[in-house]
Each structure stands twice: as structure tokens, then as C-alpha cells.
Design a protein that fits this description.
Elements (H helix, E strand, L loop, with lengths): L2 E5 L2 E4 L4 E8 L7 E7 L6 E6 L6 E3 L7 E6 L4 E6 L8 E8 L11 E2 L3 E6 L1
Parallel strand pairs: 2-11
Antiparallel strand pairs: 1-3, 3-8, 4-5, 4-9, 5-6, 7-8, 9-10, 9-11
Length: 122
């Protein structure tokens, strides 16, 4: 079992940057694909990015490609989401999640963090 805790959210102006962190408990963190998802008010949850267990593969939603970078440090049981050139439409609660699959589908993820709020002002 894995417990996930996100941090690093906040309020930033458009064009700015934030780095989200997701700290995981459990000895098997390095076995999981880690994903980032977001949910804006009144909208469905959407996939943002995923990184394979080794970090050798990454995948991004088209809406964030070229602006966001996902990475992980298995020695620290932590996955990161570096967000640059932020836009007001990036405003959402961002959650990290873990799965044994390679997937961008939220239903395939078994463990979820509580989320961290990111607000981008125009």
C-alpha cells in the first residue's frame, strides 16, 4: 500500500512557475507508475502527466506538453511536477496517483493523494 501527500501548490501569476511534490510512503514506491491529475471547479478530473517506475518514460497531456515536466527521485520516494508558463486555465486541484499499469486513465490508478490547490491569476 502507498500513501501519497502532495505539496507545493499556491497562487501564482500567469507566466509564472510552481513545482509540486508528491511524497510517498511504502517500500514499493519505485515499482509504481506515478501520475498527476487535476480537477478544476465544475469540470471532470483530467490527466496531466505520468512517469514510469524507472523514470525512463514520461507522457503528457497535450494541454501541458512543453510547459510541464514530471520527474521522480526513487531514493526520496518523491515525484515532482515542474510547471512553467502557467496559464489561468491551469487553475485546479492537482493530485498525484500510483498504479502498476502504464496509463493515463484515472480509473487505472489505485492510490491517490489528497490534492494541492494551484491558482493562476491573470
Amino acid at each position: 500500500q502507498v500513501q501519497l501527500v502532495e505539496s507545493g501548490g499556491g497562487l501564482v501569476q500567469a507566466g509564472g512557475s510552481l513545482r509540486l511534490s508528491c511524497a510517498a510512503s511504502g517500500r514499493t514506491f519505485s515499482s509504481y507508475t506515478m501520475g498527476w491529475f487535476r480537477q478544476a471547479p465544475g469540470k471532470e478530473r483530467e490527466f496531466v502527466a505520468a512517469i514510469s517506475w524507472s523514470g525512463s518514460m514520461t507522457f503528457y497531456a497535450d494541454s501541458v506538453k512543453g510547459r510541464f515536466t514530471v520527474s521522480r527521485d526513487n531514493a526520496k520516494n518523491t515525484v515532482y511536477l515542474q510547471m512553467n508558463s502557467l496559464k489561468p486555465e491551469d487553475t485546479a486541484v492537482y493530485s498525484c496517483a500510483a498504479t502498476y499499469r502504464w496509463s493515463a486513465v484515472g480509473l487505472h490508478y489505485d492510490y491517490w493523494g489528497q490534492g494541492t490547490q494551484v491558482t493562476v491569476s491573470s
